[in-house]
Structures are given as structure tokens and as C-alpha cells.
Amino acid sequence: MFFGSIPALVTPFSGGRVAEDTFRESVEWQIAEGSNGLVPCGTTGEVATLSAEEHRQVITATVEVAKGRVPVIAGCGTYSTEASIERTCAAADLGADAALIVVPYYNKPSQMGLVAHFTAIAEASPIPIVVYNVPSRTVADISVESLAEAAKHPKIVAVKDATGNLARVTAQRLACGKEFVQLSGNDDMALGFNAMGGVGCISVTANVAPRLCSDFQKAMRDGDWDEAVRLQDGLYQLHAALFTDASPAPAKYALSRVRPGFPQELRLPLVDASDASKRAVDAALEHAGLI
Questions:
Q1: Going residue by residue through the chain (291 aa), what tens digit of pLDDT does each one get?
Q2: How far, in Å, CA of 129 to CA of 190, rounded?
Q3: Contact 248, 10 (CB under 8 A)
Q4: Residue 158 belongs to what H/E stretch?
Q5: How far is the CA of 77 from the CAs of 39, 45, 94, in angstroms?
Q6: If phi over 0 gives left and psi between -120 and 50 gives alpha, with beta otherwise, what is residue 146?
Q7: Cα dist. 153→16, 63, 128, 215 in Å?
Q8: Helices 225-241 and 249-258, interaxial angle, to 10°?
Q9: How crowded is the C-beta side of 198, counted as CA atoms within 13 Å?
Q10: What is the DSSP string of 74-110?
Q11: Would you say 135 and 103 are in contact if contact means Cβ atoms under 8 Å apart?
């Protein structure tokens, strides 16, 4: 259902508001450049700063521009099960194809609580669920065993794995079954992740280099690992540079370089990328042949 290069879309702001026209143009560009799916309202989209109305606005814009050409996986997870259900049902009503549900953050649920959380959302959801496991942000980490238990529900079909542990790919395939979709949440590890059995990446870098990221994923699907390594070498500096400051500040700066006029505005508590980060991004964009 989901594969390849799937950008976790940044949300452009102008004058404190969602710059919807810019966002729609960016979504169209992503599809034209070969992206295989779209994730609005993820961490990279500064979802924590979006109002409920803005959350609906961004998802609606993505769905309307995509027009079914690629799947839309809307970020809907919170640390409240009830709120996550409400967001998921709203996203489904707006036409999203699936919901990305992050492991609950801050309240540190037990493994039993994590399984209950995802199962409750799946029970209420009209659309498939992609579990997002990112322990560096949430503290809680859904274990292989707990993921396998949750994946028994037919609506829980995939994981975005940002644990940084490549061995998880094999362990999760054995536990969850070969049909369970595994997507990397780390651009820099996507090569190894797919070699271990993953099928794609929910990507920050694809915001900036969608064609290269799409070509990279296609090379791996085609079994052309020499080409995949060549593309990885070209993109690796950019993967690193986009995290030299709090994301998505470096990504928004990079977008302003490859798409002149793209707004760099962020919402507090995030601030502009540092000068050192901008220099790293510039060097990485040059290395990748993007500027």
C-alpha cells in the first residue's frame, strides 16, 4: 500500500498563517518529482503548533492537490487516545488514505498501554493506521512484541520506524509478517533499512530533493544497489545537514535555496536555523548538485 519516497511535508507559514497557496504548489511539485506518497501534519510539518482548523486545512489541501495520484498519510497522533481518534476520523472525512499515529509522548505508557492505545484507534478508524515509533522524541518505545500484538488488528498495516536500530527491520518482519509495511523514519539509514527488508522512507530530505530521493528508492526496488549507493553518497551530507539545527528550520532554509521565495517562517518555540546550520545546508546542496 505504501512504498518508496514519502516526504513528511513542511508547512509553510507567512505572517503567522499557513501559506496555503505555497503549500499547494509544493504538493504538486512533490508529485511531479516522483514522490510516492505524502505525509501532511507530521513532526516536520510543525503539527504541534497547528490549530484544529489548520490541521484540517493542511490535510484538505494535500488531498485536493493529490487527487488520488499518491496516497495521503495524515499525521493524527497525540498523547491522548480520544484526541487521536477524533483527528483520525476527521482526516478520513477529509479524504486522507491513512493516518500516521505517533507513539504517545510525555505520559510514558506501558507496553500494554501502547497496544491498547493503537488498538482503540484502529477500532474507531475508517482508514489504515501507520504506527510511528520515534523514541528520541516520545521517550516511549513500542517493542517488537507489542507492535506485533497491535498489528494483529487489520487496520494497523505499517510502521514508520525511527528507532535507528536496523536489526528491528528483521525482527519486526518475523514478528508482524512479511505483508506488514516497514518505512524508515531516518533518511541516513534508508539504504540499510531497505536492504534489511524495508520498502521506503517517510523522509525529511525529500522535501528538498524529491527527485533524487524518489530515484534512490526506485533503484532499490529495481535491485540496482550500485545506483542506490551512488545516490546515497550524493544525498548523505544533506541528510546530516537538515538536522544540524532543530527540524524543520534547516529544511525550510534549504527549500528557500532550491525554490526561491519559499518562506522560512517557523512557529515558536522553533526559531531560524543558525548560520552554521545554513552553511552546512549550502555545502550539502552543492554536493548533491541541487544549487
A1: 899 999 999 999 999 999 999 999 999 999 999 999 999 999 999 999 999 999 999 999 999 999 999 999 999 999 999 999 999 999 999 999 999 999 999 999 999 999 999 999 999 999 999 999 999 999 999 999 999 999 999 999 999 999 999 999 999 999 999 999 999 999 999 999 999 999 999 999 999 999 999 999 999 999 999 999 999 999 999 999 999 999 999 999 999 999 999 999 999 999 999 999 999 999 999 999 999
A2: 21
A3: yes
A4: strand 156-161
A5: 13, 13, 16
A6: alpha
A7: 40, 26, 10, 33
A8: 110
A9: 29
A10: EE---S-HHHHHHHHHHHHHHT-SEEEEEPPPSS---
A11: yes
Q: Which of 203, 247, 243, 222 is nearest to 30 (CA)?
A: 203
Residue with cell 510502521: 159
Contacting residues for 32 by C-beta, under 8 A, at least 6 apart: none
Q: Which residue has the cell 483520525?
A: 88
Structure-block grid coordinates of residue 127:
482508514
d(CA 254, CA 163): 25
What cell was used for 70?
499518491
pTM: 0.97
- Kindly state the helix (H) or strand (E) to which residue 200 belongs, with its residue range: strand 200-203
Active-site annotation, residues: 132, 160
Q: What is the DSSP letter of 188?
A: G
Query: At CA 207, angle to CA 227 and CA 90, rounded to 5?
Result: 125
Angle at 164 between CA 285 and CA 78, to 5 degrees: 95
The continuous run of DSSP H or E covering 13 comes out as: strand 13-14
- CB-based burial, 175-202: b 16+ in 10 Å, e otherwise: bbeeebbbbbbbbbbbbebbebebbbbb
